[in-house]
Structure formats: C-alpha cells, structure tokens
C-alpha cells in the first residue's frame, strides 16, 4: 500500500523552485563573514510557485524538506571539485592546502606508515570508545608540542587539552565553550582569514568582527591598522590569532611585533584564541613556529589554542587535532574540562581514535619524533624552494610588478595579489585552479608546473584582463 | 584591570629575547564562574568502574560488547580490512559529505540491497560521526529548515538524545513508550500520543533494540504505528544503532524501517557501526533523509554538508575505509554477518542464563522481561537505590535507571550478578 506522495502539480512546482533558484529560501552565503544563519521561513514566497507550509505536512504528504534549496559549493573545497572535472592535461590544482610531492602526489609520511603498522600489530590497542576528551596521552603530548616540553603552565597543571576533529573541530568546540561560559561574545578575526573561520564562530553563537591585517599595498602586514583595531576592541573581546603561516596571506608578524601585540592584548584584557594549523610548516622548525603562542603563555595569562595535525603530519582525512585552554589555576582547568565535555557529548560523543593513536605513537618515541621532524623540514623546504623558483620565473619573464612577496610570505600559501578577474582568466585559459581571492597553495606546485603558472600569471597581469 | 602606564612603556623597548611579565598573575581567571559539570550518566559509570579496585567488580554499564571472557573484541573481518588498508591509502580529505562508497554500502543495509530509492537517487545521505553525529546533523538540519518544529522523544530513551536536540535548539516533547508494570511496550498510550500530536510532528523512533529498555514493538505494532503516522502525516526519524545486534540478522532488524518505507513515508535515519562492527572509537555512521526526488536529495545533501563544514569540515576516513572494505567484499561481508550473529547469540544466551539463575535462586519477582527484551540492554526494573546497593555492596556498575548491558554479562559473572540482584531486590 503506497502513500500518495504528491500531486503532479506539486512535484512540478518543487522542481521548478530548484530550477529557478528561489533565493528566498537560500539560507547560506559564501562570502559574508558576519551573516548569521537565518532560519528558513516562508516570508516573501514566490507567487509563481506553491509554497508548502513547512509544518503542515499537507494532505498530499510531500516532503517536509521540499523547500530546501541547493547550497552553494564551499569556495575552497569547490576548487578541487572543479579541478577534478577539468579534462585538460596541463591543469594544476593550487586550491586546497594539501601537500603534494614534486611528482604532484599526496604524501603519507614514513613515520606515519610505521606508526600504523605498529598499531595494527599492537595487542593492547584500545578497542572501544575513547573518553569524551579523547586519547589522554595524545592530549598531553599535543600540549607539550605547542607549549613546549618545559612549559610552566603544563607543569602547574593549568592546561586542559581535549582531542578534537582537526583544526575545525577544535575551533568549534572552543567557540561553543566561549559562547556558553565567557562574558564577551565578540570575536575579532583578521582580514582576510580562512573562509571557514567566520562560519565556525557564527554558528557557535559568537559575533564576528574583523581587525586589519593584510596590507594590499605592501602585500605585508598592516601592523598599525592591527594595533589600532585591537586597541579599539572592547575589553575582554576574543581575538583570533594565526599562530604562524597565516592563511591565506602567508604574512606573519615578526617576534617583535608579536610582543607588541601581546602587551596590547594583555593590557586590554583581550582573550587570545590561537589557530595553529601549520606548526613546523612555516619555518621547518616546530619550536620556532610555536614562539608566538609560547610568548603569551609565558606571561601567565589565559588563552585558547587550536591545533591541527592535518598538514604537519599529513593526517588530513583522519581529522586529528586538539583544543587547549590555558587557565589561571589547576582548579579552573578541571572545571573548564568538565564543561568542554558537555559541548562534545551532544556533538559526536567522543573523538575518532585512529589518527590520534598515530600521533601519540610518533610523539612519544624519540626516534620516530626525530624522523618526523626531518620529514616535516623536507616538506617545508620543498615549499620554500617552490617560492624561490616561482619568483625567479616571474623575474625571468619580466612580469610587471613587485613579486618579492612570494619569497617573503611564509607557509603553504601565497597571496598573489591577483584579482578575481585575473584568477578567472587563469582558470579558463591556463587551467590553473585556485581560490578567487588570489591565494595559491605552493604545495600544489612542482618544478615541472612552475613555468606554466608563471606563464599564466604573466598573461593575466599583462593581458587586458 | 588596567596595568600601569609605566609598566607598559617600559616594556616597549625590550628586545626579542626577553619576555616581559605585565603582572598578569594579579588578574583573576576568566573562568572563575565556570561550574563543574555533572558527569555523563552513562560514561561516568565506566570511569567509576575503572577506579574501583575490587577483584569482583563487574561493568554492565556502557553498551560496548564483550566476549565471554569479558574482553572487548576486534572482529576478524575488521582486522582483515585494516590489514588491507594499512599502507595502501593516502589520508587525503574526504568530501564534506564523506565517502561515497561507504554511503552506498550503508544505505543498502538500511533501505535494502535492491532499494528503488537508492536506484532513483532519492536519498540524501552523508557520512556522520557515528550515531551521535548522525542525530546531531539531523537535529541541526531540522532546526534550520523546520524551525517551528519539535521532536517527540520516547520515554525513556538514550540520555544523550535529549542533549543533542537541546544543543540543536529544537524543543522536545515526549511520547509514552515503556510500560513499567509489564516491563514491556505501552502500546495504547503510544498510539494515543501519536494521534494527539499535531499533524506533521517529528518523532524519534528506535528502529530496533530500544535503548535503554530493550523493548521493541512487534511487527504488527509497527504496522499500526506506521498507519497512524500516515494519518497524521508525522515525520519518522529512525535511530538505528543496533542493526544486526537485536535478532542477529540485519535484514530482520531493519523491518520497522522497511514497513515505513513500504507505506510511503519519507523517513530520516541515523545509522551507526559502533556496535555491530565493533568500530566504537572510529566514529563511523551515516545520516540519510529520503526525499521526493533526486533533485531534492541533492539539495538536502548540500545543506547537510553546510552543517558539517563549520563543525568538523569533513568526516574521518579510517572507519569509512574499514566499512567499505568489508561490505564491498562478499567474503568479508559474509564473515561480518557471521560475527554479528555470534555476538547477538551470545547476548541472547546470557539473557536466558541470567533469568534462569534468578529463578533458581528462588526470586519471587517476575523476570520474563529479561528474555522478552531484545538487544544489548535489559531494563531490569530496579530502582536507583537498588542500583546504588549493587555498586556499593557488590561492585557492580550500571546506570541508575536499572539498565543492564547484557554485553557485559559472561558465564563467569552471571551467577554473581544474579545473586547480587536477588539480594537487593528480595526485600522489596
């Protein structure tokens, strides 16, 4: 006995809405950083189509989600989708920040392979749920990695660390905690920043504001603007800081500048929230890349830090990360941890075990840790080499403009300074895939493809685009 | 608290090497007002169990399967799958919606291998973080696209269901389910509640092996529930965390869902591989929503992805690979089916053993519900006070609602358990 699942007219109207692209029902935006997600309501319904009342169900019993419009592609992940569809043999994917070898292949680190084998054969490995806060050893080792082996905050048991789903998950759990327990609900994010940052904070219930960061004129840091904007922030506001290798610009403050920032923030009682997605990838040194974070911890103050092992251990799809909250006292850290559990439990109960086990296996073993630092430096060095090659290729072509930012910027990405029209041109004519803000992932380049990219940039800059 | 200007000015001229303390130690913590959170009622049990030093201790708290030696189990099919996976795959990001191969195999389990809905691509489905993650994605989706709706939740239910829909900001109502007197289903009241709810209400249903009671509607009762849902145009959201674990046969355990599908309901479904593949810690599951047509399914899936992106970007790859490897290989899939049956049969055997032990001890109380109930859990009917006595006097750990995880019962401890239960219940 089948339920009549909808009149012909209703099915046609449902299809028609999708084809016409009824924007009244579009709940999401790609570019806006501050639009909160508004609940779908049938305001302003299109006269041409039959609007089902969302909760009525209706006599015909059609889907209660029939009004749902197709969401736009994620701007970053959508680049790879488009790249995959392109049949051209010269296509280059400089979109998502995933490391590629000189041969253009993804890389699984040797230490990771070894760790996996060890786990496979380990009779004592955990076979059930992790605790809500994740793998305890992983948490301890992650805290040491970012705060330093001898960090007083760790020794004083003032740090709570919970395993989360990579950087995104760590940011989200931290944001939810702040929205629930922190008195200030405004977070300042740098302009520009990773496209997913505003979404994460907004959905958690924080209000997103920006502070000046990138200076298009110098393709460097707008330090004055940064200091002015943070000075103007209300006391207690949260400030998102990229620990190193700023995404998407590759522009990092110097240590001197970090010290200034620290003093300013502490004097205004601004709460630091570090996003550390590239520790080890920026300079090749894990300790050097963690200096900004350690600067803040050393003054005894509080902060949040989100860590990701996606890039520096190549564990992208395993979703391994950690959120640490450095607190004033041990007692506070204990209570904070208990509240973090209440955020996590209704989201996914407990985190995935595989990736964290790999990380713990590597970090706890001196020899494997050493092996990791070598492989990490090799990845960082290859990227630096790509920067050098691209810079030289543009110089060799006499491409107009100052391209020194390519070698000054740090980490996986270069903010080329190309505009959306130029980017579109490069995609169409040269099959170069990158995000429309002009960001290129250096990790996607090889000695073989650098000339092609240089040609594309040259054409985009000199042509009437 | 402002710092003195002199202190600040003095710091500016410092070199890079020195870190200048600005007297932050005198500032109080931002988190002074944070209260210690209550322990999770289920996961807190295992914590307490682990802390107990007694050699007699028994953990019948959390629903994780144990073999007859009380040891956790890694299924042979999983071991083999992991051997094949290790070293062969890169660890690149999955798409936001997860592994397509994984989703394809998973939908077959719930909707049937030859499901027309799968052929017609009418199911919007995304890989989720086990059952919790699937329920949470649906709750967030429900909030966003049916903002005026509520969720009807059975009494009792898995405690985390309440947390999930609460954090998704979907108001909750309850419907009658468990009948304490008979320790069975309160079918009449359930149907009343279905009829009295406003048309088009959202209901959470446990597809099989209800947690925590182990009480499932019969096939006839499911048909009646489905019929009443049709009349009222309710939305049925199935949480299926124990497919294969209830009867030992995954097809049989999906019967309720198939009845609803046959009746034309456009259901939602959360699936988990935590128990039936022993993949607890991998956090591997699936959320699916049956739509009217392919276009709608594409739209719905795209919106589910938008909810996943600011939560974790994309789901973990390992568990998805394990499941796809097993279900995609006929030999491994058969092995899995056998292993699931072994687990289910052992639990059924323990139910019989526990009931018989209690009856042999001369307990005058009725214990048929132990063998009537199905799946991993037995709702014993014990009070919180009796449970507390079990813990303090006998070092037996379970949730205070009297739920016994039968997976924690073994031939080695069933006698001890029966004796303890008899002791705390005989005076009452």
UniProtKB/TrEMBL annotation, chain A:
Ranges annotated as spanning the membrane = none
One of the Pfam families matching this protein, by short name? Aminotran_1_2
Q: Name one GO molecular function term.
A: L-aspartate:2-oxoglutarate aminotransferase activity
Q: Which reaction does it catalyse?
A: L-aspartate + 2-oxoglutarate = oxaloacetate + L-glutamate
User: Which EC class is the enzyme in?
Assistant: transferase
Residues annotated as region Disordered? 29-63
Q: Where is the Aminotransferase class I/classII large domain?
A: 91-457
Name the cofactor(s): pyridoxal 5'-phosphate
Q: Name one GO cellular component term.
A: mitochondrion
Question: For this protein, what is the EC number?
Answer: 2.6.1.1
| Alphabetical GO biological process terms | amino acid metabolic process
- Protein biosynthesis listed as a keyword: no
| The UniProt record lists the keyword Membrane | no
Q: Which UniProt keywords apply?
A: Aminotransferase, Pyridoxal phosphate, Transferase
Q: Which family does it belong to?
A: Belongs to the class-I pyridoxal-phosphate-dependent aminotransferase family.
* Subunit description: Homodimer.
Query: Other remarks on record?
Result: In eukaryotes there are cytoplasmic, mitochondrial and chloroplastic isozymes.
Alphabetical list of NCBIfam families matching this protein: PRK09257.1 (NF006719)
Name used for this protein in its record: Aspartate aminotransferase
> What is the scientific name of the source organism?
Spirodela intermedia
UniProtKB/TrEMBL annotation, chain B:
Q: What is the lineage of its organism?
A: Eukaryota, Viridiplantae, Streptophyta, Embryophyta, Tracheophyta
* Cofactor(s) the protein needs: pyridoxal 5'-phosphate
Residue ranges of domain Aminotransferase class I/classII large in the record:
56-421
NCBIfam families, A to Z: PRK09257.1 (NF006719)
What's the EC number here? Answer: 2.6.1.1
The record's top EC class is: transferase
List the catalysed reactions: L-aspartate + 2-oxoglutarate = oxaloacetate + L-glutamate
Pfam families the UniProt entry points to: Aminotran_1_2 (PF00155)
Miscellaneous comment text of the record: In eukaryotes there are cytoplasmic, mitochondrial and chloroplastic isozymes.
- Tell me how this protein assembles: Homodimer.
Q: Which UniProt keywords apply?
A: Aminotransferase, Pyridoxal phosphate, Transferase
Q: Which family does it belong to?
A: Belongs to the class-I pyridoxal-phosphate-dependent aminotransferase family.
Q: What is this protein called?
A: Aspartate aminotransferase
A biological-process GO annotation: amino acid metabolic process
An annotated GO cellular component of this protein is: mitochondrion
A molecular function GO annotation:
L-aspartate:2-oxoglutarate aminotransferase activity
